[in-house]
Design a protein that fits this description.
- The structure is a single chain.
- The chain folds into two domains: 83 residues; 227 residues, Bira Bifunctional Protein, Domain 2 (BirA Bifunctional Protein, domain 2), CATH 3.30.930.
- The protein is 39% helix and 18% strand.
- The chain has eleven helices and nine strands.
- The strands form two sheets. It has a seven-stranded mixed sheet, sandwiched between helices. It has a two-stranded antiparallel ribbon with strand order 2-3.
- The longest helix is centred in the N-terminal third of the chain and has 35 residues.
- The structure holds phenylalanine.
- The site of phenylalanine has 11 residues, from strand 8 and strand 9.
Length: 341
């Protein structure tokens, strides 16, 4: 019986080393100490079969083994508890074989990408990027641009007015006025930014983006205007893009024109995007009206200039192949992710 106690204890100890968690420890305790059929209880019950003289000694050995087992169980229990709680705090154990988590890096909105491209094309052509306020005065948005109060051309613009006599600029042309009033010719500038009109459908948004160019110097001609528009469109779209000008009216230019580019999708042969005409309307242009020069303090007798303006959103729609302007402003990531930089 004495060797029994010794054997039970040593077997217990080696099993104890292999317990990995509290549950395994509980099972181990049951197997050795459970009253009904634990190894130790069975051994104690077996004492009655021993000769009376041997019983006290064997009983003592078994009781010592029991004490030892209880102590070891308590110690191990503590160790496991500390280990398990620190594991909970630091999350799951580190698995070095798991694939890494991909970092999502942001990207510029497709409109911003187009805007950057337009800016760099103009810088290449020697233009300076100018900015101006989005909340404008009547003077800068209309009056200085040859649209005095009561001028019928104001009806062309569905203007948002603010309190206190201001308005949300309806085009980027007021930036030309501000630039000319603060600098002397020669001037080569572009203004890019948000503009606002009360209009909303598949091809109009109450907020959209324009880019506008202005060149003022002595002897600037209509041919310069045409060459500049062509150079710009060929760089932004493709080198074989053709342009055409049609006579049109804008109060701040004379003569005025609208310009089209050959359809980038069908290269001019006719498709649904260009309504089978082979041409796509891009923007307005013309020679700066003498009344505009007078309003900003320039002498129309010594300087001349051209101006042209077009929609950045339109450029983006053509380049990205989308037909609903609203997609650009909904900020749906499923849409935006289709246009990585
Ligand atoms: N500012 C005009 C518009 O918004 C566009 C334009 C600019 C036309 C310059 C002619 C010259 O409609």
């Amino acid at each position: 019986m004495e060797t029994d106690a010794e054997q039970i204890r040593s077997e217990f100890e080696s099993e104890l080393l292999r317990t990995a968690n509290s549950q395994a420890l509980k099972d181990l305790r049951n197997r050795y100490l459970s009253r009904k059929n634990g190894r130790l209880s069975l051994a104690l019950r077996g004492l009655s079969k021993l000769p009376a003289a041997k019983r006290p000694h064997a009983g003592q050995a078994l009781n010592q083994a029991r004490q030892r087992i209880e102590t070891l169980l308590a110690e191990r229990q503590q160790d496991l508890e500390t280990h398990e709680s620190s594991q909970q705090q630091s999350g799951d154990p580190l698995d070095l074989t798991l694939p890494g988590r991909r970092l999502l890096i942001g990207q510029a909105h497709p409109l911003t990408q187009v805007r950057h491209q337009v800016e760099s094309v103009f810088r290449e052509l020697g233009y300076r990027i100018e900015t101006g306020p989005e909340i404008e005065t009547d003077f800068h948005n209309f009056e200085a641009l040859n649209m005095p109060e009561g001028h019928p051309a104001r009806d062309l613009q569905d203007t948002f007015f603010t309190e206190g006599g201001y308005l949300l600029r309806t085009h980027t042309s007021p930036v030309q006025v501000r630039t000319m009033m603060s600098r002397k010719p020669p001037i080569r500038m572009v203004a890019i930014g948000r503009v606002f009109r009360r209009d909303s459908d598949i091809s109009h948004s109450p907020m959209f983006h324009q880019v506008e160019g202005l060149a003022v110097d002595e002897r600037v001609t209509f041919a310069d205007l045409k060459g500049t528009i062509a150079a710009f469109c060929q760089r932004v779209f493709s080198p074989d893009t053709k342009i055409r000008l049609r006579p049109s009216y804008f109060p701040f230019v004379e003569p005025g024109a609208e310009f089209d580019i050959s359809c980038a999708l069908c290269s001019g042969s006719g498709c649904p995007t260009c309504k089978r005409s082979g041409w796509i309307e891009m923007g307005g242009a013309g020679m700066v009206h003498p009344a505009v020069f007078r309003a900003v303090g320039y002498d129309p007798g010594t300087v001349s200039g051209f101006a042209f303006g077009l929609g950045i959103d339109r450029i983006a729609m053509l380049k990205l192949g989308i037909n609903d302007i609203r997609l650009l402003f909904e900020n749906d990531l499923r849409f935006l992710r289709q246009f990585p930089q």
